[in-house]
Amino acid sequence: MLTVAVALAMAYPNLPDVSELADYRPKLPLRIYSAEGALLGEFGEERRTLTPIQDIPKVMTDAVLAIEDTRFFEHGGVDYKGIARAALANLGSGGKSQGASTITMQVARNVYLSSEKTFTRKIYEVLLTFKLERLLSKNQILEIYMNQIYLGNRAYGFAAASEAYFGKPLKSISIAEAAMLAGLPKAPSAYNPISNPKRARIRQLYIIERMQENGFITAAEAAQAKQEELKISSGSNNTRVHAEYVAEMARQLIYAQYGNEAYTRGINVYTTLNAGEQDAAYTALRQGIMDYERRQHYRGPEKFIALPKEAEAQEDAIDDTLANHPDNGNVLSAVVLEASARKIVATRADGDKFEITGDGLKPALSGLSDKAPPNIKLRPGAVIRVVKTPKNTWEITQLPEVEGAFVALNPKTGAIRALVGGFDFGKNKFNHVTQAWRQPGSTFKPFIYSAALEKGFSPSTMINDAPIFFSAGATGGQPWEPKNYDSRYDGPMSMRTGLNKSKNMISIRLLQAIGPKFGQDWITHFGFDAEKHPPYLTMALGAGSVTPMQMAAGYSVFANGGHRVNPWLIARVTDHKGRVLSEFQPQPLEQTPEAIPPRNAFIMNSLLQDVARVGTAARAQATLKRPDIYGKTGTTNDSVDAWFGGFQPTLAAVTWIGYDTPRNLGSRETGGGLSLPVWISFMQHALKGVPVAELPVPPGVVNVGGEWFYEENARNPGVSSLGMEDGAAPGNGSAPPAPEERNRILDLFRN
């Protein structure tokens, strides 16, 4: 005893200062939220939601006390009765030991000490326990324990564990769920309800019995809790909104400001994202890509495995295989058990078998043919992808190789309302909205038309849609003969009709007339980079480079009446107690820079409204059944990039679909067929309940005979015609492209 006393006396002065626990500040993750407060993402090694003791439901503390420290509120930190009881139990346990650590002792150990089992560490643990009991109240100690303890699945504390295992807030848990969570502190991996459901269940039942024995619940409540069927969350990602690209953007911005501290100090980031619109964008883009995938040739199963004959061995082989081929959203993985020309029988990891027949086999008919090569032949052991159809039947599919992007902005503020940077963040983390530089094709034409308005052109200006040819002598290199998408030429037409039909000859003549250098300068008003758009005539066909984000910002200028707004994402940053660390308020629209004259924006909107009414995007107004829809389709040469950019005055949005390594999407694939349906699907959700908007007529424009003009051009027609002087072949007298253009003459002639 003397030796122990001396050891205690010598150790006490070396104890760590525990006063900081009076203001308990554990490591808290960085959390990203939508504008309404929906969780979008969480970053940090420790998932934890700091929850004051008064906000922890009694059923949770009762469950913990029942199994960990029944006499917590009675002892002084060390439970001598508990130690004696554990010692007696261990004598007759046949090797199964029973612990006697109190909650205070566990707090001392978890916060300050290692887990090594030595006599010295035990002395420090006891001394720290006494120190904590003297400094803190019982409720403070219990609060620290309930928030600090590791419970598996990267969850620290019971609030985080409730979200991790049940996908619900701690305040909503039942007795059965609380008992399951209370079983985790002893051994988080051994009693994990996801990976070890049987052992977790045994311990849960024992804890329910302990709760009843200690008077925390009645016999009836215990019986009901034992019968309750728990819904365990099987995934590690419990975010309710698919906004992984947005969460990563926010993480990078916060890390740049706070460094590694961003992941430990409990920073909460509130974005401008609208959760409902984000869900609609995610669903629409994935659906659009999967619809395209159905039209592609079948590339074959992802893998082939040998199926053991014994049922248990077969189940293990299937489980191991599908674990390496995880589901991708609603695109699920499965293993083929039987395959014939008329039916496939497959199974998922849950062991349930299902059949694919009829139309569900069509996307993979080539894999069911007797002549199918081995790499695509559907046979037992093939790892395939399937989706559920609207009719609740199964359809075979494949993970797409094509990518896409979608972004929507509030055109009056620049706030990002929805952003999907690709088909799936887990599959490809490259953010196509902000990082993909692609040729915009005909979606770029409105910016050239806008420039033409400032040079005296009007929607009624007649322009000759006739072939143009530039000889090798004229270009200083190879001859250039641009074409319309359909290789048809309709002769003289108004500038308005030229945009409706997306005629390439009209755009080329406009840029040639105003001068490529003026066009290059003009597009910078919309936020485009001049160096990405060399001042050549090919710029009229969208031969430069843009990102979908730039396009959304550019179309926002038309939507808001001529003002330049910069896209932004983070509205507010707070600490874990809700104190505001930073906040952003956009400037009122009237105080933002005027990119183009309001009258220019108004007439361009009139043109874009017609494109969405009777032009290449007529499907937009026809489907949405509202006149305040504006936009432009775009498909680049060889159908490499498919675009749609458009807006309703309260929301501007852009869709892009293409391959990361540029290649042909298919001879019949266009922006109107690929990207426009995604945009429409999003807008059907986003515009519900939004009143139809009528754009006010700004000063300086007049309507004459049903057409809009700049006021001065109504009196003096300005440019009334273009390209008529040379009849059907006006290229003979046209100024050629600059010699430097010889390597940039690209045949980009799609809608």
From TrEMBL:
<dbReference type="Pfam" id="PF00912">
    <property type="entry name" value="Transgly"/>
</dbReference>
<keyword id="KW-0573">Peptidoglycan synthesis</keyword>
<protein>
    <recommendedName>
        <fullName>Penicillin-binding protein 1A</fullName>
        <ecNumber>2.4.99.28</ecNumber>
        <ecNumber>3.4.16.4</ecNumber>
    </recommendedName>
</protein>
<feature type="domain" description="Penicillin-binding protein transpeptidase">
    <location>
        <begin position="404"/>
        <end position="652"/>
    </location>
</feature>
<keyword id="KW-0121">Carboxypeptidase</keyword>
<keyword id="KW-0735">Signal-anchor</keyword>
<dbReference type="Pfam" id="PF00905">
    <property type="entry name" value="Transpeptidase"/>
</dbReference>
<keyword id="KW-0997">Cell inner membrane</keyword>
<comment type="pathway">
    <text>Cell wall biogenesis; peptidoglycan biosynthesis.</text>
</comment>
<dbReference type="InterPro" id="IPR012338">
    <property type="entry name" value="Beta-lactam/transpept-like"/>
</dbReference>
<keyword id="KW-0645">Protease</keyword>
<feature type="domain" description="Glycosyl transferase family 51">
    <location>
        <begin position="37"/>
        <end position="212"/>
    </location>
</feature>
<comment type="similarity">
    <text>In the C-terminal section; belongs to the transpeptidase family.</text>
</comment>
<keyword id="KW-0328">Glycosyltransferase</keyword>
<dbReference type="InterPro" id="IPR050396">
    <property type="entry name" value="Glycosyltr_51/Transpeptidase"/>
</dbReference>
<dbReference type="Pfam" id="PF17092">
    <property type="entry name" value="PCB_OB"/>
</dbReference>
<dbReference type="InterPro" id="IPR036950">
    <property type="entry name" value="PBP_transglycosylase"/>
</dbReference>
<keyword id="KW-0511">Multifunctional enzyme</keyword>
<dbReference type="InterPro" id="IPR023346">
    <property type="entry name" value="Lysozyme-like_dom_sf"/>
</dbReference>
<keyword id="KW-0808">Transferase</keyword>
<keyword id="KW-1133">Transmembrane helix</keyword>
<comment type="similarity">
    <text>In the N-terminal section; belongs to the glycosyltransferase 51 family.</text>
</comment>
<feature type="domain" description="Penicillin-binding protein OB-like">
    <location>
        <begin position="298"/>
        <end position="402"/>
    </location>
</feature>
<keyword id="KW-0378">Hydrolase</keyword>
<keyword id="KW-0046">Antibiotic resistance</keyword>
<feature type="region of interest" description="Disordered">
    <location>
        <begin position="720"/>
        <end position="743"/>
    </location>
</feature>
<keyword id="KW-1003">Cell membrane</keyword>
<keyword id="KW-0961">Cell wall biogenesis/degradation</keyword>
<dbReference type="InterPro" id="IPR031376">
    <property type="entry name" value="PCB_OB"/>
</dbReference>
<keyword id="KW-0133">Cell shape</keyword>
<keyword id="KW-0812">Transmembrane</keyword>
<dbReference type="InterPro" id="IPR001264">
    <property type="entry name" value="Glyco_trans_51"/>
</dbReference>
<keyword id="KW-0472">Membrane</keyword>
<dbReference type="InterPro" id="IPR001460">
    <property type="entry name" value="PCN-bd_Tpept"/>
</dbReference>
